[in-house]
Amino acid sequence: MKWHKGLTGYGIALILIITLNFVLPRLLPGDPLLAIYGEEALLTMSVEQQVLLRERLGLDAPLLNQYVLYWRNLFQGDLGYSYYYKAPVTEVLLGALPWSLLLVGTSLFLSTWLGLVLGLESGWRRGKAFDGVLLTGIVLLGGIPDFFLGMLLLIYFGVTLQLFPLSGSITLYSSLSGFPLVLDILWHLVLPVVSLTLVRLSGIYLVARNSMIGTMTEPFVFTAKAKGLSGRGIRYKHAGKHVLLPVITQLGVGLGRLATGSLFIEMVFSYPGLGLILQKGLEARDYPLLTGTAIVIASGVLLGSFLVEIIYGRIDPRLKHAH
User: How many domains does the chain have?
Assistant: First the structure.
């Protein structure tokens, strides 16, 4: 599969999402400005400010002209103005995005690595006590909602044992810098990452385990055993390469769930990422902030899926000739 064909598909999906983001508020009955900004925001604006805002958004112009202006603003990085934060939406989201990327990236790495390793070990020991206990435990964890597991960990490790902070990403008014600051960030990151990783672990683990069970019947595995190779060498050097492909597929499928799960985790732990921004936007009915956050999240998920598709093609060259 040519990478540019996949890029075209993801590009069309993004255009449709942004177009819906533009059209839906304007299809609502009543004043489009009211639909975009909400009643609470308009109550705080003077008549002059509302007129200026209408001119800026082109709401008095034909719909096609508004659409062109909307895209022009997007290309200029203008996602609107947040009346809750009293700042441009782009500026607010750029401040929160690094924290979300840190949380999602760390959880993605840990859940993929742990799921792959545990799946290989469990599939290799199929039917034994190790496999049974691990399978039962991980499946049970996978059935717990992200936010509920986060609250349990927060209550036990944060409130009862007081081992980890209850909220935030850094200790306020600590004036830390350098390596102590890094340790403080990691300390605040532990519970959110553990919550998100444990719930997302089951998908990767089950795919790796089932793939490992199927791979163990392949002729090359019997040949490796006949040559006297160690079990560890067979699992990771030979069988692991075959297990990796379906794991990457599961990784791409689960990106959307990972992104939405991180939003709830950030709300539970008051972690200053996009999830907390989304919560504040919902509470204040800050529609420009909500629509801007939706565009950023959708763009991130589509970009992640596209990168996974490229990685898959690199690992399995047969896909280059699939079309």
Answer: 2
User: Which domain-ending residue is among 67, 88, 109?
Assistant: 88
Report the Cα 134 to chain-centroid distance in Å. Answer: 26
Within 13 Å, how many C-alpha atoms sit on residue 100's CB side? 26
Residue-range definition of the domain harbouring residue 306: 97-315
Which pLDDT tens digits describe the chain residue by residue (323 residues)?
455 666 778 888 888 988 888 877 666 665 666 666 666 666 666 777 777 777 666 666 677 877 888 888 888 888 888 878 888 889 999 999 999 999 999 999 999 899 998 988 888 888 888 888 999 999 888 888 888 999 999 999 988 988 898 888 888 877 778 888 889 899 999 999 999 999 888 888 988 888 888 888 777 777 777 777 777 777 777 777 778 888 887 887 788 888 888 889 999 999 999 988 988 888 877 778 888 888 898 888 888 888 877 777 776 655 555 44
Q: Is residue 322 in a domain? A: no
Q: Is 30 left (phi over 0), alpha (psi -120 to 50) or beta?
A: left
**Do 102 and 81 fall within a single domain?**
no
Give the list of residues 6+ apart from residue 266 with CB closer than 8 angstroms, or none: 99, 100, 103, 192, 272, 273, 274, 275, 276, 279
Q: Residue type at 224?
A: A
Q: What are phi and psi of 88, to 5 degrees?
A: -60, 145
Are residues 74 and 175 part of one domain?
Answer: no
Closest C-alpha among 104, 145, 153, 160 to residue 269 = 153
Q: Under 8 Å CB-to-CB from 296, ≥6 apart: which residues?
A: 93, 97, 274
- Supply the pTM of this predicted model: 0.82
Residues in the chain, total = 323
In this structure, the answer to whether residues 102 and 61 fall within a common structural domain is no
